């Protein structure tokens, strides 16, 4: 099979990999659930390539992420659920529908992006999806892996926030949602005091042998720090990733300096590494 810039070739490759007689044994063993960890990993690798400003890596990682979409679509087609074309049709329809000021008639384009239109359109879509779920649930049987799983009754404001996000992002989204009804600090100073309070409570918890209490207090501290970031309009995920990169760079400097003197991380004392760490922090 010859590579191509046409997306259809990728669909054909995935179909060949999943062929029951001539396909790849590993790919044939996979399911929706088994490839979820790979999807999450590929998403973070895209983010990493962007933050490193590595265009070559970004191009490759976007391809890996695109493969995940094609993979799920092939599995869905085999199960009689939908196919890749339906995914493409769905997203193109959504983008056109949500941008009437760009793709609408002359009157809609002249009106421009009316404030509130985006939220209204999304609310209409959500209501339509909910009705479709009810219709599907009424028709389907309990046989097979893809019957709709019942969800618990949800009526609270925070129930509208998906729990699928990483913890830092989820904390931010929950705080933002609560703030829409006024449940928020009026200014940053009380949040700073709260961070100090939670730090002290974590320190006290460390004096006990109660592991659960220590975890709870650390969670409270982290949640408060996320709130502090939000108060100053700082994305905590971005801020933490920058710190992680600084740590990488400074630790690498220590390794390089030790190697230059014939030593290594394994041989160096903590005091020696601290001296180099401080040197690495200098501009």
TrEMBL record:
The keyword Hydrolase applies. Transmembrane segments: none annotated. GO terms for biological process: dATP catabolic process; dGTP catabolic process; dTTP catabolic process; dUTP catabolic process; response to stress; TTP catabolic process; UTP catabolic process. The keyword Hydrolase applies. Its EC number is 3.6.1.8. Coiled coil: none annotated. Residues 30-103, 190-250 form the NTP pyrophosphohydrolase MazG-like domain. CDD domains: NTP-PPase_MazG_Cterm (cd11529), NTP-PPase_MazG_Nterm (cd11528). One of its GO terms (molecular function) is ATP diphosphatase activity. Belongs to the nucleoside triphosphate pyrophosphohydrolase family. This is Nucleoside triphosphate pyrophosphohydrolase. It comes from Aureimonas fodinaquatilis. The lineage of its organism: Bacteria, Pseudomonadati, Pseudomonadota, Alphaproteobacteria, Hyphomicrobiales.
């Amino acid at each position: 099979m010859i590579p191509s810039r046409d997306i259809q070739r990728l669909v054909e490759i995935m179909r060949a990999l999943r062929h029951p007689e001539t396909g790849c044994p590993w790919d044939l063993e996979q399911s929706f659930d088994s490839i979820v960890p790979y999807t999450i990993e590929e998403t973070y690798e895209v983010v990493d390539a962007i933050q490193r400003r590595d265009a070559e890596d970004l191009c490759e990682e976007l391809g890996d992420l695109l493969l995940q979409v094609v993979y799920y679509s092939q599995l869905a087609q085999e199960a009689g659920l939908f196919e890749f074309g339906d995914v493409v049709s769905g997203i193109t329809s959504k983008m056109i529908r949500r941008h009437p000021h760009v793709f609408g008639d002359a009157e809609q384009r002249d009106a421009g992006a009316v404030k509130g239109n985006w939220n209204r359109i999304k609310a209409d879509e959500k209501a339509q999806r909910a009705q479709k779920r009810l219709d599907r649930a009424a028709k389907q049987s309990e046989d097979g892996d893809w019957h709709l799983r019942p969800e618990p009754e949800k009526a609270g404001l925070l129930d509208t926030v998906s729990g699928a996000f990483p913890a830092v992002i989820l904390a931010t989204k929950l705080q933002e949602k609560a703030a829409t009804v006024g449940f928020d600090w009026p200014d940053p100073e009380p949040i700073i005091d709260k961070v100090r309070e939670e730090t002290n409570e974590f320190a006290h918890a460390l004096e006990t042998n109660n592991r659960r209490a220590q975890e709870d207090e650390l969670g409270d501290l982290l949640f408060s720090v996320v709130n502090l970031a939000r108060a100053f309009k700082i994305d905590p995920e971005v801020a933490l990733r920058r710190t992680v990169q600084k740590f990488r760079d400074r630790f690498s400097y220590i390794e390089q300096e030790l190697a230059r003197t014939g030593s290594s991380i394994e041989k160096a004392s903590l005091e020696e590494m601290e001296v180099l760490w401080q040197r690495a922090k200098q501009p």
